[in-house]
Design a protein that fits this description.
It is a single chain. The protein has 268 residues and is mainly alpha-helical. α1 runs antiparallel to α2 and α2 runs parallel beside α7. The longest helix is centred in the last third of the chain and has 25 residues. The model has no long low-confidence stretch (mean pLDDT 82). It holds the Pfam family YdjM. This is Metal-dependent hydrolase. GO terms for molecular function: hydrolase activity. Keywords: Hydrolase, Membrane, Transmembrane, Transmembrane helix.
């Protein structure tokens, strides 16, 4: 599940599911403002791991800036792969589906996001929102937006950021929720990659079968081809439908959709 739209919607689905189902936990009791900010961050974070691939569409989101960042991330990922792989790991470059495709990275991204937002809601959160909104927009619009049209992505991302920041002006977003959202988005990406033919080295650096970069994946019969018929005709649409439903349920739970109070969107 590696196409942009599917990854993006899986991030939104994961965030919606976590917040809708955790009613008794603080993450399920967010204000509508914090939930919306988290939704943007999680959707964008579901594309974040692929910044380790300089040739990926997502790496061109903000033109030369994101391309340069992608090249740097790819170099670091390659170095970490080469220095930590075992004899049983494949002898490859290691840039893509390397460091950024591990739970260690997701945890670091979550903690880092929380720390940055805690430092400043005034400047740090808008910057993060802009970056992750850009990733989300690029992922969702991948099939309709020219790959090199960084200006359009920048304008749309700035608009989304402006709306969210204005909405949270009087009710600051939860820093912890922002961190959780980014972590959730990354994990959604890993799960999507895990069910493709290559698998995903989620558990690095834990050695499995003598490999520190063991590609976690279900049996081959349960895997699918990236961008294939199963993803485009079944998995992608299903994820989109579920994400919309659970988003509505989470927002209803947060008190943001009073007109849906008579409907029980999550009858559990």
């Amino acid at each position: 599940m590696s196409t942009g739209p599917t990854h993006a919607m899986s991030g939104l689905l994961a965030w919606s599911a976590v917040t809708a189902l955790a009613e008794s936990h603080p993450i399920g009791q967010l204000t509508p403002q914090s939930w919306a900010v988290g939704a943007v961050l999680a959707t964008g974070a579901a594309l974040l791991p692929d910044l380790d691939h300089p040739s990926s569409t997502i790496s061109r989101t903000f033109g030369p800036v994101s391309a340069g960042a992608s090249a740097l991330i790819n170099t670091i990922s390659s170095f970490v792969y080469r220095t930590t792989r075992t004899r049983k790991d494949s002898n490859r470059d290691g840039g893509h589906r390397g460091l950024t495709h591990t739970l260690a990275f997701a945890l670091a991204a979550a903690v880092g996001t929380t720390a940055v937002v805690q430092q400043s809601q005034k400047w740090a959160l808008p910057v993060l929102m802009f970056v992750f909104a850009g990733l989300a927009v690029r992922g969702i619009m991948n099939d309709w937006c020219p790959q090199k049209d960084a200006l359009l992505i920048t304008v749309v991302s700035a608009a989304i950021t402006g709306v969210c920041i204005a909405w949270t002006a009087q009710t600051p977003a939860s820093a912890a929720a922002c961190g959780v959202a980014v972590g959730v988005g990354c994990v959604a990406h890993y799960l999507g990659d895990a069910i493709t033919e290559q698998g995903c080295p989620i558990l690095w650096p834990i050695p499995l079968m003598g490999k520190t970069w063991f590609p976690v994946a279900p049996p081959k019969i349960m895997r699918m081809k990236t961008g294939g018929t199963v993803e485009m005709a079944v998995v992608g649409p299903l994820i989109t439908i579920l994400s919309v439903w659970l988003s509505a349920a989470a927002l209803q739970q947060a008190g943001a959709l009073p007109f849906l109070e008579s409907f029980d969107l999550l009858p559990i």
